[in-house]
Structure formats: structure tokens, C-alpha cells
Amino acid sequence: AAPGPRSYTTLRDEAVKLFNSLQQLESERDPVPLMQGILQTCLDLPPLVDEIYCQLVKQTTEPLAPGGQGDLHYWQLFTCMSCTFLPSPPVLRFLRFHLDRRSRFPASEMAKYACFIREALRKTKRRECVPSLEEILVLMRRQEMICTVHCPGAPACSVAISSHTTAEEVARELVSRLGLSQSPNLFALYEQSRRREQPVGSTTLLADVLTRFE
After folding, report:
1. What is the crossing angle of helices 89-102 and 48-61, to 10°?
2. Which CATH number, 3.40.190.10, 3.10.20.90, 3.40.50.980, 3.40.718.10, labels domain 145-213?
3. In a 3-state reduction of DSSP, which class is residue 15?
4. Which residue from 69, 4, 81 is spatially nearest to 35, judged by alpha carbons?
5. pTM for the full model?
6. pLDDT tens, residue by residue, 70-87
């Protein structure tokens, strides 16, 4: 399940805990839950977002084992952060400089992460939820998620979405696929659970909806 409400101590103490989590990330065999926990703390305590970005820059500048498991995990968390949070303008400028340096060697795997992160930071808006476990897994591979939408009177449609895809963008694609572009009707996505059914706001990120389902 997605992380629930947490209790926190002081920002200083939480920053220390996050640093310890980053250290643990180097050797973690299954880093996904730990990554989601770090992201959740940053969502709950926004002042720590810049701190984590700066720590990730430090850890990926001169890694002890370039391209090793620890280095890879840092870049994967970096990728998840870039699709979830925008840092403050001064830190963003610092990040872009760091990413530009890494992308000078396009053949390396880390350069591919750097290019992905730089592009993501151009699109990222405030998230309501941290990435789901599934989203983290696909971000670690720099891929898109497949979202299944059930359409009345038509087969279910599978749509590839990114962390930045809105409900309006998916609705437009489905209208085009179903040949309804000339229809005078209005179309929207609905979120349905056992308790309720409600329309999804046009600017809502589909990734956030999927996290709520998780």
C-alpha cells in the first residue's frame, strides 16, 4: 500500500534520517520501498526537497564505484525526485549544471539518466501523491507506465502515460482513438472505487490517481 500518514520530529532530525536512508540505498537489494519512503518524507516536509537534491548531486559527482549498484540507485532516486518535485530556483540552476556535465558522455548509462532527469525537470509540477511502487519501477528503467481505461460501449483501452500526463491529455487521445473527434459531447475520465465514482479533474496527473488506487 502507499505510505500513510506519518509523525515527524524536527527538520534537522529528519534530514539526518534521510541522509542515513541514502547511505542505506547503496547496498539495498530492493530499493523501491526505501525510495518511496524518501519521496514521502519530502512530500510531507517540502523544505527537505532541496536537501535531498543536493545530497544526490554530491553522491553522483565522484562515486566510489561509477556505474556500480550504489551509483545506479542514486541516479534512479534522482530520476524519481525529478518527476515528483521541483527544487528552488538556485538549486535548480545547480542541478542543471551537474546534469549537463554528466550528459557530455552520452554513451554511459548515467548520462542517459542525466538527460532524462533534465527533461523531466522541465515538465514537473506539484504532485498530490508520491509515485506508486509501479511508477518507481518504470522510472528506474526510464520507461512509461501503461494505464488501462474502461470506456462505456467499447473495449478497455491501454494508454502509455508518463509522470506528467494529465487526465485531459488521456481523454483527448481516447476520443481520437474511438473516432469521436466530431462528437458534440464532452468527455472526461472518472475514478471509480468501491465507495464512490467521481470525475478526474482535467489537470490531474494520472500518475497520482494510480497511486491512490495502489
Report:
1. 20
2. 3.10.20.90
3. helix
4. 81
5. 0.88
6. 999 999 999 999 999 999
